[in-house]
Each structure stands twice: as C-alpha cells, then as structure tokens.
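Quick one, probably user error.
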C-alpha cells in the first residue's frame, strides 16, 4: 500500500521556480516525484546520510565523437551538468526496477 501523500505549497522566486521546473522536466519525473527526490536528498545530505555526496565512485565510458557533441549541446541547452544528467538517468532506471538488487549475478 502506498504511503499517504500531502500537498506542500510555498512561494519561491520565479527564477528558482523556472530552474526547478526545467530540471524536473528533464528528469522525466512528475513534479511530485522530483520534489520528493529533491527534498529527501537534501535531508539525507544534511544529516550526513549515505548519499551520492558522501561516497562517490567513478563511472567512465566512451561514446562516438558525434554523439558526444550532441550530448554536450543538450546539456548546455538544458543547463545541466554531466554528473546531474547521469545521476538522474541512473536513479530513474533503478526506480523503474524496484525488484532489482545490487547483488551481482552468480557466474554460470
């Protein structure tokens, strides 16, 4: 059963509102999902919780040069960093597969 939800309204500067909406839309999440993630991440980081900000690992891979240039232009147009883009992609992929675990498959 899903947890009960409540509405949260607050007046914020228009420029911040625009930035939040841009990033929310780029994330592919609903506003409720995005705000839940944003607020949860903030409190976890503030309390010294185990978040991306506290423990980091490097992920590196190569892409074709043309795709890289298209990607850089996308980031520029959407005011995103590479890190924010990939963190969001990973979080969305993991959220779509709630039954997945971090255990590695056994060798066959």
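Nope, works fine. Designed sequence:
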């Amino acid at each position: 059963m899903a947890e009960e939800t409540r509405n949260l309204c607050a007046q914020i500067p228009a420029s911040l509102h625009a930035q939040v909406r841009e990033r929310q839309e780029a994330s592919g999440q609903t506003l409720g999902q995005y705000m839940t993630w944003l607020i949860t991440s903030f409190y976890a980081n503030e309390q010294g919780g185990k978040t991306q900000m506290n423990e980091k690992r490097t992920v590196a891979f190569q892409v074709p040069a043309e795709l890289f240039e298209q990607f850089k232009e996308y980031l520029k147009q959407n005011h995103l960093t590479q890190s924010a883009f990939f963190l969001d992609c990973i979080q969305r992929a993991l959220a779509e597969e709630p039954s997945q675990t971090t255990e590695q498959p056994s060798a066959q």
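The two ends are 37 Å apart (CA to CA).
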